[in-house]
C-alpha cells in the first residue's frame, strides 16, 4: 500500500498547492500577467524540450553507433517526456519540476541518481539470490548442467558439385 501516499500527493496536494500559488501570484501581479506567465513558461518549455530532445537523441545514436549501451540517454529521454508534460500543465510548481527535468545539468544529475539506485537494487536482488552474499563485482556463474556441452563450431558451406569420399560408393 506504498502507492497511496504517492497518489495522494500527485492528485490532491499538488493541485491544491498549484491553485494556491496561482491565486497568490495573481493577487501580486494581476490575473492577466499570471496567465501570460503560465503560457510563456509552456512556450519556453516546448522550445527547450525540442532542443534538448534532439541533443539527447544525437547522443543516443552516437553511443549506439559506438556499440555502447545508451542507458543514461534512455533515462534522460523519459525525463524529457515527463518534463514536457509537466510544463504543459498550468501552474508554477509543475513548471519548476518540468524545467528541472529539461535543464541539462539537473536532468543529468537526476538520471545518474536513478541509474545508481537501480544498480543498487539489482545488486541487492543478486545478493538475495546468492544466499545473501553480494559483492561489489558480480561474475555470472552457471550451474553445471550435464546436458550442456560447451564448445565452438564453424559453419562450413558444402558445395553440392564436390563429391565427398563417403559418396563415391
Structure description:
The protein has 169 residues and is mostly helical. It has five helices and no strands.
Number of DSSP strands?
Answer: 0
Which descriptor suits the 3D outline? elongated
The CA-CA distance between the termini, in Å, is: 77 Å
- pLDDT average, as an integer? 83
Question: What Rg, in angstroms, do the CA atoms define?
Answer: 28 Å
- Helical residues, percent: 55-70%
| Low-pLDDT stretches | 132-139
H/E element order:
HHHHH
Largest sheet, described in full? Answer: none
Task: Kindly estimate the percentage of residues that lie in beta strands according to DSSP.
Answer: under 5%
Please count the helical segments: 5
What structural class should be given to the helix and strand makeup? mainly alpha
Concise structural overview:
This protein is mostly helical and 169 residues long.
Entry keywords:
0% strand, elongated, 5 helices, 169 residues, single chain, mainly alpha
Write the layout of secondary structure elements.
Elements: H1 3-29, H2 31-65, H3 71-88, H4 92-102, H5 104-129
Helix pairs in contact: 1-2, 2-3, 2-4, 3-4, 3-5
